[in-house]
User: Fold this.
Amino acid sequence: MTKHRVSATVNGDAVEFLCETQQTLLDVLRDELKFTGTKEGCGTGDCGACSVTVDGRLMCSCLMLGVEAEGKSIQTIEGMASGDSLHPLQQKFLEHAALQCGICTPGMLIAARSLLERKPDPTEEEVRYWLAGNLCRCTGYHKIVEAVLDAAREMRGA
Amino acid sequence: MSEMRFEAPKTLQAAVALLAAANGRARILAGGTDLVIQMRSGRVEPELLVDIKGIPEMNAIALDNGAYRFGAAVGCMDLIEHAGLAKAWPGVIDGVKLIGSIQVKARASVGGNLCNASPAADSVPALIAAAAVASIIGPKGRREVPVENIPTGPGKTSLAPGEIVVSILLPRRPPHSGDAYVRFTPRTEMDIAVVGAGVNLTLDGGGTCVQARVCLGAVAERALLVPECAAALVGTKVDAAALERLAAAASAACRPIDDKRGTREFRIKVAGVMVRRAAELALQRARGN
Assistant:
């Protein structure tokens, strides 16, 4: 079977991979490129566990084909911390215990960062609506929302 | 499993030729939020995917003499964030905003929402109320079709084999016009409409409704344009009596399914409530411009 040769960047680094038409970006990230921080939840775009950004847009990597990534700039959870220093969102998730099993956490963090890039000072309601596409079966969401609001405060220097 | 080919043509002509040559075994890929799931579940097994996002006309938003034309593949988030279009057609944007999560809206397109032909599609009643016209290209050339004539039933459209919805035109609006779309769902986000209602109306300088279009979603096999609802509004000040007649006309037009998301009786009743709320919001917006 002929595979597609695709060039893209992941977290700023150039990558090249081969994929079949039906492989999703999530399949490619996890199985071909070994970026296993991005999780598969539902595989149908309902849970947000596989959230990444593509050219700055937050999306579910299970809903995009790998072959569509040609020339795109992809950001995953692996690019969130700078070396050993956690991103403020990651730090606040720890401080607020905003995770239990952790499967939804990479997607939550990517989605929350995408919100704060657009809206550095969101209301609680805005956080809840923005994260509506990210399901968590452990925390009941409250600690996640608190962590995002606290990270926003810190990032604004408030 | 046979090999699935992938093509990303740069022109409409090339896309039409690819679809024609595939003889019904191809699928058009825009955002993929329906198609990729259908492929993975085995519901569809195309031999060829034609990704149309690289065709400039299908990805553009343009204002021409007061009318907005947007490509059928434009992502929902791009429409929502287009300040001019959102101001001109807030009701269309009400519908687009309700399509799935932020993640889904980054990929999903209004053209896809239309062609997937779910009776509960959130952008469709607002487009029909707006008198939107789809521009379609196919092996026999180009044609312009009112959006209400495209979906014919669940998953079914009037498109001929090999035809592509290229763009959607929202006509120039007279002054004092407003539109709105509201829906009923048990949850506020990430849900499928049990009933949806789109209302688009125009007032004269004295506040009398001179033009109206009303469309209901999820209460029949396809979105229903209901002239009886429009007739209840035209010539009135959209007062309590008119809203009462509007609600009754909406309930009378429903022929819904009965399922776990809403019984037949509930949908018929709630259609009246939703259409009244949509009309009140459209009225408020019309008065504001």
Notes: The helical segments of chain A are 25-32, 88-95, 105-118, 124-130, 142-156. Chain A has five helices and five strands.
